Amino acid sequence: MEKITKDMGIMDIVTAHPETLEVFAQYGMGCIGCAAAHFENLEAGAKVHGIDPDEMVSAMNAIIEQKAGQ
User: Fold this and answer.
1) Predicted local confidence at residue 31, as pLDDT
2) Closest of 49, 45, 62, 63 to residue 6, by C-alpha
């Protein structure tokens, strides 16, 4: 299983792991509707919103691992 990293593109993350949408929502990032999501990586998007990208990465990897374990 590929781990999410903060240098990955937002749309690449969502496309590969749609379950991460709930993490984006928890952090108040409606990324799918944002034009910047098509060219920004997770770190840049998080910083624009004042969010710690490392926290988001941890939350996303946790939800992916949880889904994989089901």
Assistant:
1) 64
2) 45
Distance CA 41, CA 14 (A): 11
Domains and CATH numbers, the chain: 10-68 (1.10.3910.10)
CA 59 to chain centre: 9
Distances 9 to 28, 40, 42, 49, 69 between C-alpha atoms, Å: 18, 6, 6, 16, 25
Q: Is 48 helix (H, G, I), strand (E, B) or coil?
A: helix
pLDDT per residue as tens digits for the range 29-38? 876 677 777 7
pTM (2 decimals)?
Answer: 0.87
- Give the total residue count for the chain: 70
